[in-house]
Amino acid sequence: MPTITLSGVVKNYVSGHAAVKDLDLTIPDGSFTCLLGPSGCGKTTTLRMIAGLEQPTLGEITVGDRVLDSVEKGVYVPPEKRDMGLVFQNYALWPHLTVRGNTEFGLRMRKVPAERRKARAMEALEKVQVAECADRYPSQLSGGQQQRVALARMLAVDPDVLLLDEPLSNLDARLRLEMRTELKRIHDETGATVVFVTHDQMEAMTMATHIAVMCDGELQQVAPPMEMYERPANRFVAEFVGSPPMNMVPGEQAGLASSLQRFAEKRGDFGAVGCFGVRPEVLRLAAPGGAVPDSAWSEDAIVETVLPTGPSWTVELRAHDTRMFAITHEDPGAGPGDALRCWARPEALHLFGADGARVAAWDEAVAPVREAAK
Question: Which residue numbers delimit the ABC transporter domain (predicted)?
């Protein structure tokens, strides 16, 4: 399957609501691309337009050199001719058909001969490890098994593109973990292009080769998971990707370390810094008056809550009027109301402008300053 490209795609509804605004997105061949964002951001609408269930108001959707949707050119390819498989959030299994019957359904619609249809259905069921349930009905299956059957039905028709609309949201935590592993394995085995819609950033981080973050119908950033985590394009992405979210400290309250201030002033953009962010896992804790590196940013804080998770502790802090979180793998030895000093090294800080756009991260431009200081 060639690359899927959305160019200047807009989707407006009759009510006047703009679900998707001027979207330019490239989904590489063979990638596992997650459309990530909060409810109402336009991710499901985008998926449905790729599938052909919705038509864009403006713009063009192509697969390689083949135009699937173009308002300007008057082109629209119906869903059944796009060679794409779609799994819905609610599974959409036929209650009167057995697992085998549900899996064969798409093949039956394509008039595949009975013997070949049966063989392909069983192959797909074996691939998702529910072949032993072939003669059962959906009502006799657990939620995780029903999800696997929905995947098998899609895989049986051997589509070039797999479109998944929040398929794990109805599962419990254990089944979600199992299905993440299963989906990743299926992608590795088939080499198909996967477009996966989710609001769960953990799903996106653990499964995707590329993540496209959306907000209010607009694309915020497209990048591999770790690149997005380490270099978010703006404040929205920084706070949305990560759990707990990145701590944000207002520029006027930051008490920036002198070395960081010199760096920002040298670049001439210190005044453009509206806030800076630091991930909870790199925020360090020290006793009041404890040793803190000279170059570090630090701030006095009061402990509000300590949440043990087993291998680590999540500590909620209040520094002036700013709520912050720190993750530590050592017992913090403090409880609600206790005073601590939180700090972070300059290279761990992310700078954002008043408009929320990324200004810089220390490690992106500080090298010349470091060299000059030697």
Answer: 4-241
- Cis upstream peptide for 56 (omega within 30°): no
Same domain as 274, residue 351: yes
* pLDDT 10s digits, 73-109: 999 999 988 888 888 877 789 999 999 999 999 888 8
Query: Distances in Å between the alpha carbon of 237 and those of 5, 163, 183, 352, 358?
Result: 22, 23, 25, 11, 10
Asked whether residue 114 falls in the same domain as residue 262, the answer is no
Could you tell me if 78 and 131 lie in one domain? yes
Residue with tokens 């690359």: 3
Per the CB < 8 A criterion, the answer to whether 36 and 223 are in contact is no
**Phi-psi region for residue 336, left (φ > 0), alpha (ψ -120 to 50) or beta?**
beta
Q: For the chain, what is the domain count?
A: 2
What number of other Cβ atoms are within 10 A of residue 55's Cβ? 12
Q: Which domain holds residue 118?
A: 4-236
Distance, in Å, from the CA atom of 80 to the CA atom of 73, rounded to the nearest integer, reads: 20
Domain containing 80 — which CATH number?
Answer: 3.40.50.300
